[in-house]
Structure formats: C-alpha cells, structure tokens
C-alpha cells in the first residue's frame, strides 16, 4: 500500500487515482478530518450558494471516505520515516483532540479568544469541527485555558 501524508485536495486526488488502479492507500492527516484548506474556506455563502466551487473539493471527501481501497487516519502526525533497501516504514503519532466534540457547541468562541489564532474551523458533512493546530501554537496548552473553557 501507499501512505499519503495530508488529506487535502492533492492527497484525496492521489488516493482516488491509486484506487482506480486497485492500489490500497492510507491517508494520514493531522487535522480532525480530511479536505485540507477547502474545509476552512467552504461554505461562505450564508443563506445561499455563491458558486465559489470550493464545495467540489469538500464533495470529493465523501467519495474518498466510501472507497474501500482508502484507509483514513486523522489526528496523526508523521513521527518517523525510514528507508530500508527500497522499502519505507512510517510511524504515525496519533494526537488526541484538544477540543472535545462532546462539549463543543460549535459556536466558534474558542477561535475568537485564541491568543495565537490557531484554532481553525473545518466544514464537514456532519457540520463544523474546530481544531487547534498544535504545531503553530505559540503558547503552552496550560496558558490556553480561556480558549478551552469557552
């Protein structure tokens, strides 16, 4: 199989192409869902579609999730990549979500008060998901209690 790092439009397209040839792949993404930046950009039309076509990338996520040749691992960061005689071995570090779905009202207040501005909104078919980008956060997570509490 093939490991694809990143579940944005390019990663989704690569997995889809490999699947058409019967090749199994695994998409690893550090975000809570695949779709990449398209998830943050869709849908800006408040009351009706503004025909920006960003949703085309988001719609590709649905078909990728249903593809039996594609495995998805979210909340994962590439920890180790080793090469041995033409073969590769990768280790993914699974990161538990900081923003719990159970307590989240999906209001976006956490993103508004985040001192580093690294809480991002992702659009999924199930609604919005908020995710803290640990790699870009400038603060210790204990300093972010205000964001976590709201």
Strand order of the largest sheet: 1-2-3
Instruction: Give the beta-strand count.
Output: 7
Please state the CA-atom Rg, rounded to the nearest Å: 17 Å
- The span between the termini is 42 Å
**Parts with pLDDT < 50 across at least 5 consecutive residues:** none
* Helix and strand run: EHEHHEEEHEEH
| Average pLDDT, all residues | 77
Alpha plus pi helix count:
5
Largest sheet: 3 strands, parallel
Helix amount: 25-40%
Q: What's the shape?
A: flat
Oligomer: single chain
Structural class, from secondary structure content? alpha/beta
Q: Report the sheet-strand fraction.
A: 25-35%
Describe this structure in words.
The mean pLDDT is 77. The protein is flat. A 3-stranded parallel sheet has the order 1-2-3, covered by helices on one side. It has a two-stranded antiparallel sheet with strand order 4-5. A two-stranded antiparallel ribbon has the order 6-7. The chain has 150 residues and is of the alpha/beta class. The N and C termini lie far apart (42 Å). The chain has 5 helices and 7 strands. α1 crosses α3.
Topology:
Elements lengths: L1 E4 L3 H12 L4 E5 L7 H5 L12 H12 L4 E5 L1 E9 L2 E8 L14 H5 L5 E6 L2 E6 L12 H5 L1
Parallel strand pairs: 1-2, 2-3
Antiparallel strand pairs: 4-5, 6-7
Helix pairs in contact: 1-3
Summarize the structure.
The protein has 150 residues and is α/β, with parallel strands linked by helices. The chain has helices at residues 9-20, 37-41, 54-65, 109-113, 145-149, and strands spanning 2-5, 25-29, 70-74, 76-84, 87-94, 119-124, 127-132.
């Amino acid at each position: 199989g093939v490991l694809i790092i990143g579940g944005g439009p390019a990663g989704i397209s690569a997995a889809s192409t490999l699947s058409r040839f019967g090749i199994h792949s695994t998409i690893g993404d550090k975000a809570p869902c695949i779709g990449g930046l398209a998830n943050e950009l869709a849908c800006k039309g408040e009351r009706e579609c503004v025909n920006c076509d960003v949703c085309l990338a988001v719609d590709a996520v649905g078909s990728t999730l249903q593809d039996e040749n594609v495995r998805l691992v979210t909340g994962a960061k590439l920890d180790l990549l080793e090469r041995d005689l033409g073969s590769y071995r990768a280790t993914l570090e699974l990161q538990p979500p900081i923003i719990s779905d159970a307590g989240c009202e999906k209001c976006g207040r956490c993103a508004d008060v985040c001192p580093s501005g690294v809480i991002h909104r992702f659009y999924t078919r199930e609604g919005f998901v908020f995710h803290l980008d640990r790699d870009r956060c400038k603060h210790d997570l204990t300093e972010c209690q205000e964001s976590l509490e709201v």
